[in-house]
């Protein structure tokens, strides 16, 4: 045990101050994109010189929910399946001084907790959601997810998927989020800057990160390594500015990356506190028996 | 200067394929988990862009620019 601790102390990656290094190496499969997202997140926090104690990372169930818990140093809530946003909403309302970050997967945020996601976007609550979209339920063995593209074979659709997938970033943008972007694990520098922007911006920020799952997804479509998936992202990514001038036929099979929405909108917790203060001022000195609806 | 924490590496080969200057090469060396670790064969070509550090999913590459 002491030997293990000595070994952990010797490692001197400059981001180790943000990581629980005693649990490394990560439990992710070789070539998984979750490690790249963790790396970008730790880099973004490092560049902003944020105190990790001011961050609360909330996560659900799934491979990508392992990104903040246990690897990221700082407060973490590892919650039930699909419900990181309700937990984060509660944490944000009670502790508005903290920065709430939700890092979870597509199965968690859109498969199980899709309604929470769109309603959080509608309210514009100050939560940062980084959704790692690997297009599959990876942890449980590669079952069909609501994000799986049409025609793709999975363990529960061996002859190909007959459904159409969700375009999640567009959905959240339409629901009213104040900042929406999409990147892939290949676009590490823009992803890091986008994360910094989301972390410093007030309001609901959503970043969809297209990530690779070489074991549960790539294996069935002939892309068995992480590098093949990253190569595909490099070839198929189209910037949002260019995509605006392209036809839907030209965009078939492409990944639109970049900032998809940015708008100024009043924020939920600030509105709630303001209303609370106003009513407290108005009702000062009144007793419960005097309360009336009007 | 490039340092590789061989015990953290899972041999995914992302650094080998995505280094713009092709500094890394997969070696025959196996770590204790049974993965082939990369070696920085052309270390003198490295400009210190830190792309490998950011792309490495396992935090096993350390670039020391000073």
What can you see in these coordinates?
The complex is a heterodimer of chains A (294) and B (66). Chain A has 294 residues and is α/β, with parallel strands linked by helices. Chain A has a single domain, classed as Rossmann fold (3-Layer(aba) Sandwich). Chain A has helices at 2-10, 34-47, 84-94, 106-112, 114-123, 168-175, 188-200, 226-236, 240-243, 248-251, 268-282, and strands at residues 55-59, 75-78, 99-105, 127-133, 179-184, 205-210, 237-239, 255-262. Chain A is globular, with a radius of gyration of 21 Å. The model of chain A has no long low-confidence stretch (mean pLDDT 89). Chain B has one domain (2-63): Alpha-Beta Plaits (2-Layer Sandwich), CATH 3.30.70.20. Chain B has helices at 14-18, 51-55, and strands spanning 2-4, 24-30, 36-40, 61-63. In chain B, a hairpin with a 5-residue loop joins strand 2 (24-30) and strand 3 (36-40). The N and C termini of chain B lie close together (8 Å).
The assigned CATH architecture of chain B is 2-Layer Sandwich
From N to C, what is the helix and strand string of chain B?
EHEEHE
Shape of chain A: globular
Quick one: how many beta strands of chain A?
8
CATH architecture of chain A: 3-Layer(aba) Sandwich
Q: Roughly how much helix do the residues of chain B carry, as a percent range? A: 10-25%
Number of helices of chain B: 2
Give the number of helices of chain A.
11
Radius of gyration of chain B, taken over Cα atoms and rounded to an integer in Å: 11 Å
> What is the element string of chain A, with H for helices and E for strands?
HHEEHEHHEHEHEHEHHEH
Gyration radius of chain A (Cα, Å) is: 21 Å
CATH topology of chain B: Alpha-Beta Plaits
Structural category of chain A = alpha/beta
């Amino acid at each position: 045990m002491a030997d293990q601790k000595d070994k952990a102390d010797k490692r001197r990656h400059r981001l180790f101050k943000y990581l629980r290094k005693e649990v490394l190496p990560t439990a992710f499969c070789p070539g998984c994109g979750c490690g790249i997202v963790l790396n970008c997140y730790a880099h973004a926090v490092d560049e902003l010189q944020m105190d990790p104690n001011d961050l609360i990372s909330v996560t659900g169930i799934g491979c990508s929910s392992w990104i903040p818990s246990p690897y990221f140093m700082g407060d973490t809530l590892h919650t039930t399946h699909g419900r990181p946003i309700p937990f984060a909403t509660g944490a944000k309302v009670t502790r508005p001084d903290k920065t709430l970050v939700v890092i979870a997967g597509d199965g968690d945020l859109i498969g199980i907790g899709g309604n929470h996601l769109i309603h959080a976007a509608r309210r514009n609550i100050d939560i940062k959601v980084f959704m790692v979209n690997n297009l599959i339920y990876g942890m449980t063995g590669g079952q069909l997810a609501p994000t799986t593209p049409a025609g793709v074979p999975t363990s529960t659709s061996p002859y190909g998927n007959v459904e159409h997938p969700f375009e999640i970033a567009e959905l959240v943008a339409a629901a009213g989020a104040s900042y929406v972007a999409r990147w892939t694990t290949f676009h590490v520098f823009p992803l890091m800057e986008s994360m910094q922007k989301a972390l410093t911006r007030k309001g609901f920020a959503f970043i969809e990160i297209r990530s690779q799952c070489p074991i549960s997804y790539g294996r069935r479509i002939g892309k068995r390594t992480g590098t093949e998936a990253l190569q595909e992202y490099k070839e198929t990514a189209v910037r949002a500015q260019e995509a605006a001038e392209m036809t839907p036929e030209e965009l078939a099979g492409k990944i639109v990356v970049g900032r998809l929405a940015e708008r100024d909108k009043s924020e939920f917790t600030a509105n709630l506190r303001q209303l609370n203060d106003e009513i407290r001022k108005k009702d000062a000195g009144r007793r419960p028996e005097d309360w009336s609806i009007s | 200067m490039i340092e590789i924490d061989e015990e953290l590496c899972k041999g995914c080969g992302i650094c080998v394929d995505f280094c713009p200057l092709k500094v890394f090469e997969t070696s025959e060396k196996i770590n204790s988990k049974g993965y082939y670790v990369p070696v920085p064969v052309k270390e003198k070509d490295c400009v210190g862009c830190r792309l490998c550090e950011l792309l490495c999913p396992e935090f096993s590459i350390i670039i020391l620019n000073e």
